[in-house]
Amino acid sequence: MLSPSQGEILAGLCHGRAGQRSGWEAFVALFYTLVTMMDPEVVSFTIPTESNKIVFVWNISAEKPEEEIYCSLLKVFSPFGALYSLKLLPNAGVSDPGYYAVIKYYCCRDASRSQAACDRKTLFQDTPLKVRICTKQKGFNYKSLSLNSTKCQDLANHYLGFNGWSKKIIALQNISGLDEEEDEGEPQEDTKLRYLCVLEVVLPGHGIRSRGVGVAEEILMKQKDPAELLMKTGNLQKYAVQKAVSDAFQKILLLIFENGKVAVEYVSPNDDAVDCLTEDELQGLIQVNDFTWTSFNPEGEEEILTELSFHEDTVGF
Question: What is the phi/psi pair of residue 95, to 5°?
Answer without folding.
Answer: -95, 170
